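User: Some background: our group keeps a shared notebook of sequences we're curious about, and every so often someone picks one and asks for a predicted structure to add to the entry. Today it's my turn. The entry only has the sequence so far, pasted here. Could you supply the structure so I can complete it?
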Amino acid sequence: MTNRRFDLGCASLYSMLVIALLSIACVRGGEIETVSDDYTQWRGLRSDGSASAFVEPAQWPDELKLEWRVEIGKGYATPLVVDDVVYAFVRREGREVLVALEAGTGDELWQSSYPAPYEPGEPAAVHGAGPKATPVYRNGKLFTVGISGIVAAFDASGGELLWRTDAPGEPPYFGAASSPIADEGMVMAHPGNYGPLTAFGAETGEIEWTAGAGGFFASPIFADFDGVRQVISVTQEGVIGVSFPGGAPLWRHPWKADQGGPTPVLHGDMVIVSGNQLGAAAFKPVQRDGDWVTETVWETTAVSMYLSTPVVIANTLYGLSQRSRGQYFALDVISGSVLWLGPPRAALNTAVVKAGSLLLLLNDDAELVVAESNRERLEVVGRYSVAESATWAQPTVSGKRVFVKDTDSLTLWIVD
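Assistant: Of course. Here's the predicted structure to add to the notebook entry:
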């Protein structure tokens, strides 16, 4: 591998303009697609599990084309794509490392790191000590949350470490897995040992505000309700809405999610949540006489999600339930009623991506399942083996490219 430095310069500015102005455009199967093929944060440009500018082949091949594979380091953070650069956040020899690769070749452009001693708690040891939270890219910077809760900022053009927080005195027992979000000159995360939602100044790393109780596995997202922009986060005491950029607490919805759960999913004015053995629920934050309250829309115990975050396509919620040792499902997103349940023992975990009317389901055993969204049954189009070890990270789908991070490697597959 080479160790070249480069400058994104105007390309980065152009990329951000594309993201801001052209993030939605073409329609397929009733779903809005992203025009940009950049993939800048956890669950894509809109944090909703969408592929970026996905190009579906005229006919699905028997095998995907392997473009390159590199041994890159341990961890399950989703790689990011900005212009023709791939950023991977991994662990190498006791350090947390941000690596920039040339997307077309896998050649290393630069790497930047800091020491991060960490020993996972016994229940989490099987997943190793690599980072699990996905970085976020904004305005030429990359922000990361390491396995021990360290928050750091890097210059995207050459990898300079701009700032980082100290490691907590006691690291998170199961490891930090909640991914950061960023905008308006701030980056929001649950830092340290499952700390509260915290806004850091993007330039300095100084704390701007904190809100709510400690987080766990779920990642915060942006939302807009009644014209009020806010950050939604699942804490160990409930789901909270916080004004953005101000940081004022707006509402809290009771939801005990201290044993794990997926990132909240938005659908219109609804927030959909789930958690370990908790079932799933949908609620609406509304203003009433000047105060914010939440109204439950539906609840179900028929499905329950531990780590796998579902997606919505055409008023249907698709995902993997932890019931029956892993079971694909479809729910009517308006009523919460079960439309179908797939066969049991499908997977321990599935990273769910939507691409128009398609579902791309990356199971933890390195099988990528391609299925049509269908309210009547699981309609599989193809199955592909895409890695040589466990795949717990979300795949990065960018145009015809599918980047897959397994335990140690990063692989580029071409859908053609």
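Suggested note for the entry: The first strand starts at residue 27 and ends at 28. Residues 1-32 have pLDDT under 50 and may be disordered.
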